[in-house]
Write a structure and sequence with these properties.
The protein is mainly α and 85 residues long. It has one domain. The chain contains 5 helices and no strands. It is elongated, with a radius of gyration of 17 Å.
Length: 85
C-alpha cells in the first residue's frame, strides 16, 4: 500500500483539525517538559478556577480535543479550497 499525501499538504498548518490537534498535544507536552513551572502556575490560580476542571475530567479534555479535530477535518474549509483553485 502506497501512502499518498493530500493535494494541499503544504497548507496543512491551516487546517482547523491540525490546529486543534496541535493545541491538544502542546498543552500536555509543555506540562510534561516543564512540570515545576506548571505546578507553580497551578498554585497561582485561584481556587474557583482550579475547580472548573477537576482532575477526573482531564482525560475528557483529551478526548474532546481529538473529537473536535475529527469533526474539523471533515468540515469543508472554503478558504483552503479557494486557494487550490
Amino acid at each position: 500500500m502506497k501512502i499518498k499525501l493530500i493535494d494541499n499538504w503544504k497548507d496543512c498548518w491551516r487546517f482547523a483539525s491540525v490546529r486543534t490537534l496541535g493545541l491538544g498535544t502542546a498543552i500536555p507536552g509543555l506540562i510534561e517538559l516543564f512540570p515545576d513551572q506548571a505546578l507553580h502556575i497551578w498554585a497561582l490560580l485561584p481556587e474557583d478556577m482550579k475547580r472548573v476542571v477537576p482532575d477526573r475530567y482531564v482525560l475528557w479534555y483529551v478526548i474532546a480535543v481529538v473529537a473536535t479535530s475529527l469533526v474539523a477535518r471533515i468540515i469543508r474549509q472554503d478558504k483552503l479550497h479557494e486557494k487550490a483553485n
